[in-house]
Design goal:
Pathway: Amino-acid biosynthesis; D-alanine biosynthesis; D-alanine from L-alanine: step 1/1. It is an enzyme of class 5 (isomerase). GO terms for molecular function: alanine racemase activity; pyridoxal phosphate binding. It contains eleven helices and 19 strands. The chain has 378 residues and is of the alpha/beta class. The chain has two domains: 201 residues, TIM Barrel, CATH 3.20.20.10; 127 residues, Lyase, Ornithine Decarboxylase, Chain A, domain 1, CATH 2.40.37. α1 crosses α3. The longest helix has 19 residues. It binds pyridoxal-5'-phosphate. Pyridoxal-5'-phosphate (PLP) binds next to β9.
Amino acid sequence: MDSTAMRAWARIDLAALRANVEALRARAPGAGLMAVVKSDAYGHGMVPCARAAIEAGATWLGTATPQEALELRAAGVGARALCWLWTPGGPWREAIEADIDVSVSGMWALREVVAAARAAGRHARVHLKADTGLGRNGAQPADWPELVAAARAAEAEGALQVTGLWSHFACADEPGHPSIAAQLASYREALAHAERAGLRPEVRHMANSPATLTLPESHFDLVRTGVAMYGISPVPQLGAPADFGLRPVMTLGARIALVKAVPGGHGISYGHKYTTPGATTLALVPVGYADGIPRHASGTGPVLVAGKWRTVAGRVAMDQFVVDLGGDSAEVGDEALLFGPGDRGEPTAEDWALAADTISYEIITRIGTRVPRVYVGK
Ligand SMILES: *Cc1c(COP(=O)(O)O)cnc(C)c1O
């Protein structure tokens, strides 16, 4: 697809994604790699990214919802896949029949998965999740023995196989945070208990991107990498993507829709939060918060236009925002680069995260469906 006639585009560099997967595998040489492709592969497009990750040696795929995992199967992606965010009603049976591994954090879910396996006439593959300190999903240490015993009993009866035991970090992006060692210790206890109860999982896994890069003792059998695979530094205080051997996969661009001269003292965009300091030229960038450009970056978001970084002038609107070219000229149809790897001088997703007081995960993930994805490096 050619982007020259597009209002805006997200260029997705699959060669960079494959190289990132290889760099991450080299960081965790004793473990397999689960490519986390939830939320449309963090906005990059789930199926093409899943395929590229597998080509580069990913051994598992991870999604949040069962619907996402079923979408992978519908597209013909057959790799091992785990999905972990369940609510009552499933779809457990569809997942079992599609050979999707399912996560169970509590007795309600275990009961539903066992019933679905009996109805399907085949066993479910289950990863039991321990809450080792995140306080989100997963079974509390006090509830773990009951969940393990019930899972072991269902396994003995043939309704399921416990294929994984897992947990998730709260503060892996803050190396040295005391919760990290505490969570590892709690996880080891959960594993030891499960082994004593007779469970023999295929994979034990805990590490997300920051732990994959900074905490080898958390790698166990499998690392679950999301943001780093998309070339974003999960620990920006420790280094930019390149410092970890990663390259941003998404470049977000738009085509300038209007350039015009205006006098000094001219209010710009809704609420007139910006007023031109003198006679100047303005360029109209045709993307807005409906495309995922944070309104919080009004007055602060950086854009490369006509060779220089400009700043969003006034408010980001639903479909567009304005930059003040300060008297420089630009042509209608010129590229405006919002973020990318940075090698053409453009800002990065991390620059937008700083401008909007958020994290780069949110910047890439929220780019909307109205922005076409253009795949290169296939
Ligand atoms: C999203 C997610 C990941 C991936 O996290 P990154 O920091 O993007 O690598 C891993 N595990 C779970 C449970 C997740 O929800």
